[in-house]
Amino acid sequence: MKTLLISLLAAATLPLTAQRDASIRIYPQQGTQIIDKNIYGQFSEDLGACIYGGLWVGPNSDIPNTKGYRNDVLKALKDLQVPVLRWPGGCFADEYHWMDGIGPYENRPKLVNNNWGGTVEDNSFGTHEFLNLCEMIGCDPYISANVGSGTVEEMAKWIEYMTADGESQMAVLRRKNGREKPWKVKFIGVGNESWGCGGNMRPEFYADMYRRYSTYCREYNGNRLFKVASGASDYDTNWTDVLMKNVGTRMNGLSLHYYTVGDWNHKGSATSFNNEDYYWTLGKCLEIESTIQKHITIMNKYDPKKQVALLVDEWGTWWDEEPGTIQGHLFQQNTMRDAFVAAITLNVFNKYTDRIKMANIAQVVNVLQSMILTDGPKMLLTPTYHVFEMYKVHQDATYLPLDLICDKTTVRDNREVPMLSASASRDKNGLIHITIANVDLDNAQNVSIDLQGTKIASVKGRILTSGNITDHNTFEKPDFVKPTAFNGSKIEKGQLKINMPAKSIVVLEVK
Ligand code: AHR
Fold first, then answer.
1. Where does ligand 1 bind, in terms of residues with CB under 6 Å?
2. Residues in contact with 389: Cβ distance below 8 Å, sequence separation at least 6, in sequence order
3. Is the distance from CB of 49 to CB of 372 less than 8 angstroms?
4. What is the three-state SS of 441-503?
5. Which residue of 44, 130, 292, 462 shows the fewest CB atoms closer than 10 Å?
């Protein structure tokens, strides 16, 4: 990787509102890897108001909906070009019994959501409702199957129900429930957090469980499955080692969960924090890179041909729940700080796309670092949504390596935060897109971008910024933070020069 970070000045030595200088050298000729679009994936757990009230209100709701799905949320997700959506959990998945969520609504048994606040749900959002939603927004479903408290038979029948055609018992049942053709389901998670809420297993035991359960993940009618083993939490490289050793290429993917959170008992407010907290958050968030590298080093040892993908299928910020909301529902606000976490994390994922083939931010609506928040009929797009929308140009584009020279600062816990983060790609039409985050709260940055002789005919861009790092959208002011046209770029002697205001995220399109 060609990233070179040079500390020129400590942040503290600069006067407020000074200019920093930085440079980026992009190597368009060296692009060989396609950025897997699934890195821009989403996660929708049956948790709080993610499903019920967020994605789904039911066909009889007063809230405008199409067959029970909120129209405003549907449109926002289509605009976002969501490539893949994970469901039903998370921890919820290992207690979910899919047969309770099929057939006429009135016959479905109620369920008590033991993981998340004990909320009673009516099971009206089940397999049909999820897979039809994926078809409507044009994304791949990623089903997380129950290993912790479910049987092999239950999991095997679920796959049969979703994907088999012909006279198989489960295909007949699906047809009876109104769906003639099987759905296209590629991604199957065999358990979730099996070291914790998914059964508290030891890695050796889970490796054997995986081998057993995955044996019965049958492929019907040419449907190809991509089987994902439950992976490590954060820094637990032993889990990765044991899985790689004992499961190897029997899995197509191994997951990793990494949350940007400090003390689990005092996570801190989503909206009320100081500058030091902000920089600390970025430091913790950026540690995902060295964490990924450690897991990848182990994977390379067992699998040098990179046949097993790494899937960061849960990531994002985790703050205290908003005061006044239901405990256990993990509803949190989303500020410009969260936008920076998204921007710099996605820049990291792009860089490791030779191994990272999917990532799913937690979660899509109303839970943790959401794209969308709802309150009854009201809905807003968060700053994180806007980052995903600006970054969608990287989906399935060719990753372009780059060198970055910028200032950096050291934050609490001795973590280093570079003042700039960037990523570049070339799309199928030859357009180069560059996403850059100036994380500096006080200083603008003059950034020279050298494209190694590539002819630049024109450049345009969009910017996401706001007066305060704590700024966010509310139901009263849903458009307070949103992207606007970026006018700070020019072409000078064949190079791009841009001036990025303090705390801003930019996407450039270079022709
Ligand atoms: O995303 C919330 C929870 O975090 C998920 O259910 C679980 O997998 C993780 O611990």
1. 45, 89-91, 192-193, 314, 362-363, 368
2. 79, 80, 483
3. no
4. CCCEEEEEEECCCCCCCCEEEEEEECCCCCCECCCCCCCCCCCEECCCEEEECCEEEEEECCC
5. 462
Tokens of 202: 């030891």
pTM score, two decimals?
0.96
Residue 319 CA to ligand 1 centre (angstroms): 13
Q: How far is CA 421 from CA 5, 161, 177, 320, 505, in A?
A: 10, 45, 50, 27, 9
How far is the C-alpha of 319 from the C-alpha of 146, rounded, in Å? 27
| Beta-bridge partners for 508 | 434, 461
Distance 432 CA to ligand 1 centre (A): 36
Is 314 annotated as catalytic? yes
Backbone angles phi, psi at 331, to 5 degrees: -85, 120
Q: pLDDT tens per residue, the chain (511 residues)?
A: 333 333 333 344 445 557 899 999 999 999 999 999 999 999 999 999 999 999 999 999 999 999 999 999 999 999 999 999 999 999 999 999 999 999 999 999 999 999 999 999 999 999 999 999 999 999 999 999 999 999 999 999 999 999 999 999 999 999 999 999 999 999 999 999 999 999 999 999 999 999 999 999 999 999 999 999 999 999 999 999 999 999 999 999 999 999 999 899 999 999 999 999 999 999 999 999 999 999 999 999 999 999 999 999 999 999 999 999 999 999 999 999 999 999 999 999 999 999 999 999 999 999 999 999 999 999 999 999 999 999 999 999 999 999 999 999 999 888 999 999 999 999 999 999 999 999 999 999 999 999 999 999 999 999 999 999 999 999 999 999 999 999 999 999 888 999 999 999 999 999 9
Q: Is 416 a catalytic residue?
A: no
Cβ atoms of 70 and 379 closer than 8 Å: yes
* Site to substitute for ligand 1 among 85, 86, 257, most atoms within 8 A of C-beta: 257
Ligand 1 centroid, distance to 368 Cα (angstroms): 10
Closest Cα to atom 6 of ligand 1: 90
Q: Residues 435, 389: contact at Cβ < 8 Å? A: no
Alpha helices in 364-435 (DSSP H): 383-391
Cα–Cα dist 417/282, whole Å: 7
